[in-house]
Amino acid sequence: MEQNKQDICTETHYRKITVKTSDGSTIQGKINVAANQRVSDIFTKSEASFIVMVDVAYRDGVGKILFVNKRHILWVEPEDSEDPQQDIC
């Protein structure tokens, strides 16, 4: 069965955040949030144990993808600006 392009396309909204972890690391990157979702919803309403960060600047690398365990996050600071939405097909 063939799916319509519209059925498989998703809209993404990236928000830039800075995360401080329990080992003292500071991680900067982006997370994907739904159009009607706040950054805080990912930490308070989602039962997922990990967050996925993209375009991460961490240690010696830039542009990495990291899976961060929410139990090890001390604080999160979202940037004021929001990246423009993108359609992923």
Number of strands: 6
Indicate the structural class: mainly beta
* Number of domain modules: 1
In terms of DSSP E residues, the strand content is over 45%
CA(first)-CA(last) distance: 18 Å
Main beta sheet? 6 strands, antiparallel
Question: What would you say the CATH architecture is?
Answer: Roll
The helix-strand sequence is HEEHEEEE
Would you give an account of this structure?
With 89 residues, the chain is mainly β. The chain has a single domain, classed as SH3 type barrels. Helix content is 11%, strand content 57%. It has two helices and six strands. Strands 1, 2, 3, 4, 5 and 6 form a six-stranded antiparallel β-sheet that branches. A hairpin with a 4-residue loop joins strand 1 (10-21) and strand 2. The radius of gyration is 14 Å and the shape is globular. The two termini are 18 Å apart.
What attributes does this structure have?
89 residues; mainly beta; SH3 type barrels; 6-stranded antiparallel sheet; 2 helices; 6 strands; 11% helix
Task: Give a short summary of the structure.
With 89 residues, the chain is mainly beta.
What is the element layout, followed by pairings?
Layout (H helix, E strand, L loop, with lengths): L4 H4 L1 E12 L4 E8 L5 H6 L5 E9 L2 E9 L3 E10 L3 E3 L1
Antiparallel strand pairs: 1-2, 1-5, 1-6, 2-3, 3-4
